[in-house]
Amino acid sequence: MLQFVQLNRERRMSNFGTYLRGQLAKRGWDQSRLALETGLRASTISNLINKTPKQPEIGTLRKIADALDLDIVEVMEQAGVRMRRSVTDEDRRRRLAVVLDVAPWAAQLVETLAGLPETDQDAAISFVEHLAERHRSQKA
Questions:
Q1: Is residue 121 predicted with pLDDT exceeding 90?
Q2: pLDDT class for 79, splitting at 50, 70, 90?
Q3: Is residue 22 part of a domain?
Q4: Which residue, 69, 99, 46, is CA-closest to 111?
Q5: Last residue of a domain, one of 35, 66, 82
Q6: Domain shared by 50 and 13, yes or no
Q7: Domain count of the chain?
Q8: How far lies 13's CA from each of 23, 24, 130, in Å?
């Protein structure tokens, strides 16, 4: 079974807004500064903090993690994306094999994961697992 779980959307995004506010306060940043550092629109940052938007794009979360010098897995988890971290290289290989069995179209993406840090590999694997599940449910 895939390891990607989404929480209640309103609670998830409310918590994410609180989390982002706290991260900005720690740095003495405002929303405009985060928008500048990420290259995202100020309205996007405002929506993430103050509203209950749809699930943020992984790329948006990556930009926020990079700008705030945070672990991408932590940011994704705070946004409501629950991921399982691989315990061993063997576990990671097993998860990748399952993904490729379900979604052979992801083979090229999977090949590029080897050069990433382990936490980024786990985040990418979880995201591909999510895409594979979505792809499978759309076919059903």
A1: no
A2: confident
A3: yes
A4: 99
A5: 82
A6: yes
A7: 2
A8: 15, 16, 19
Domain ranges, residue 106: 89-139
Given a cut of 90, whether residue 27 has pLDDT beyond it is yes
The sign one gets for the Cα dihedral 135, 101, 129, 116 is negative
How many Cα neighbours within 13 Å face the side chain of 58? 13
Last residue of a domain, one of 60, 82, 104: 82
DSSP 11-36: HHHHHHHHHHHHHHHHHT--HHHHHH
Determine the Cα–Cα distance for residues 113 and 117; give it in Å rounded to an integer.
8
Query: Residue 45 in contact with residue 31, Cβ under 8 Å?
Result: yes
- Whether the CB-CB separation of 87 and 102 falls below 8 Å is answered with no
Would you call 6 helix, strand, or coil by DSSP?
Answer: strand
pTM higher than 0.85, yes or no? no
What type of residue is 44? T
